[in-house]
Fold these 2 entries.
Entry 1:
Amino acid sequence: MATAVSRRDFLKVAGATMAGTAVGGVLALGGDLRPQVAHAQEARVKEAKAYPSVCPYCAVGCGILVHVTGEGKDRKIINIEGNPESPVNYGNLCPKGAATYQLHVNPNRLTKVLHRAPGATQWEVWELDRAMDRVAELVKKTRDETFIEKLPNGKVVNQTPALFSLGGATMDNEWNHIHQKLMRGLGIIAIENQARI
Ligand code: SF4
């Protein structure tokens, strides 16, 4: 004779059977079902100092925290993340801003300069220091040769129209501040940057 089983009874039996099967399966595989003590992963930035800065990429100007460890020559950036105290982004960053760390610490980052002398057909590999010295030398030479102290009407302008500065979005806020001072100090008046922060 067929026995009537209610829907509630059926679900109880099915649930118990499935749980029993799952437990049996775990034990059969050598698993341990006793309560375990959980450990939080130690924060990677625990020993680091956090410096507030601004995402270099766009005009939104999201706040970031740059985590740095070590002293002197051993100082290195170990992490960059959103600054939760920033009223602009409250710690959030878009995918581009969230990848800022990779801008600074990246094995593919170029550390040498390719230089092709006037008239040469081959590129020469230069150390960065040598290239920087050469750029400084040419900037000083050009500035000195083209510096205008006064206009014909006697107005003091202290400027050079021969140099132009174009910044990029990957220059951070602090660099832009110092860069602007240097350019103005040299008398350069054509200064542009696409970042607009
Ligand atoms: S995190 Fe994104 S939105 Fe914010 S400043 Fe950087 S690039 Fe712009």
Entry 2:
Amino acid sequence: MSYRHFGRIGDIWKHIPLCEFLIIEQPANYIETNSAYPEYQLTASFEQQYGILHVEKNIQKSQLLQQSAYWRVLSSISEKKSGLSKYLGSPALALNILKGTAKNFVFFDIEQACLKEIAEYAKKLNIAQQVNCRNEDSINGLISMIENLTPHDFIHVDPYLIHEKNANGNSYFDAFVRAMRQGIMGMLWYGFNTFQERENLHNGFQKQTGIGSRTRLQGIELRSILLDESILDVNPGVLGCGILIGNLSNISQQYFKEIALEITNIYQNSTMFGKYPGQLIFDEFEIEI
Ligand SMILES: C[S@@+](CC[C@H](N)C(=O)[O-])C[C@H]1O[C@@H](n2cnc3c(N)ncnc32)[C@H](O)[C@@H]1O
């Protein structure tokens, strides 16, 4: 299985905002560039204990989280009284949230196996006809779709490397910027493990900056207080991760800030792998493109 990071802290700071943006914005079409699998079996690994299982354990502390679309979907699939045994990837979260409202879904991945599972999952939800799975490079795939998308559509871009150029000289960030300039709604996720990696990512953002432009991306990063503390013996998946959003409503923008604060609150007295402080910090920024 390609995606090992399911249910880890990076998924927390991706799936909670994503689900709420989808509920708030009610897009006509949902396009995901890097889909991976719809469902995963949790193993209670240390990484998951610091991720989804920490959220589950502390859910009573936060009304905002309890009422979130993310928590409603995840708790509805729970088979055990003792708690969550399965986790949902972003394709299944989006399908559950938008199944009654969106017209079409497009899921890209270069791995055929995960697309097959998405198609089967959609069949179980009785929405197989609305789901188009595309087994191809999604930088090219997304760029070729952009001119047919509208401000009612939502793209979710979630690769490993956002600035790496493909054979046509385009990166995921380039494709995302193009879509945002056209007014399409979207979110892009990225991860980092050191301040140097974070700086490299931000240097890449600068290359597309358009001072005075009316198109703005709102960014929020969540990071461990251990970033650059030379902790080599534990790794929760990523030590920091960011989300850029564009063309979303004020309600989504406001929620984005509130949920970042709420997540840092429930991690305040946490531990990472029972060994180090698990506390998180968040940073907000804006990019004109
Ligand atoms: C980070 S995972 C996606 C996780 C998923 N979005 C979620 O949140 O549950 C990245 C996925 O991108 C796929 N991928 C990598 N390069 C790709 C490319 N050029 N085009 C399409 N998919 C790609 C991988 O096969 C993998 O399944």
